[in-house]
Design brief:
Elements (H helix, E strand, L loop, with lengths): L23 H18 L5 H21 L11 H7 L2 H14 L8
Helix pairs in contact: 1-2, 1-4
């Protein structure tokens, strides 16, 4: 455990934020990258891998929407299943729309 750096704002996050609190834009960027990877895994040939990926994908998408103050988008029936079935370019466009319409500060952009 001594090998794990525990600095609160180490070198991974160096850009200045204009608000109080944790660097949520950085968190959103990393969560989006995770969602893009999970989206690819939902298409896996191995049914067990795809099933587990879909479960993780669902929770990740809900978390991302909550972080971006767009949680109401998760109320649509089967929303995560429909997102998982999208081609990767369409899913990335959906993420772009969430990025454009949402905000980690809760303020409309």
């Amino acid at each position: 455990m001594d090998d794990v750096p525990l600095e609160s704002n180490g070198p991974a996050y160096q850009r200045r934020e204009v608000r109080e609190g944790p660097p949520l834009d950085y968190v959103a960027e990393k969560l989006r990258a995770s969602l893009e990877s999970l989206h690819a895994l939902t298409q896996a040939a191995d049914a067990d891998v795809a099933c587990q990926a879909r479960i993780a994908f669902h929770y990740g998408v809900v978390s991302y929407l909550a972080l971006k103050n767009m949680l109401a988008a998760s109320n649509a029936p089967f929303f995560s299943e429909r997102l998982a079935a999208m081609p990767s370019t369409a899913f990335e466009q959906w993420l772009d729309a969430i990025d454009a319409g949402g905000s980690v500060t809760g303020l409309a952009l």
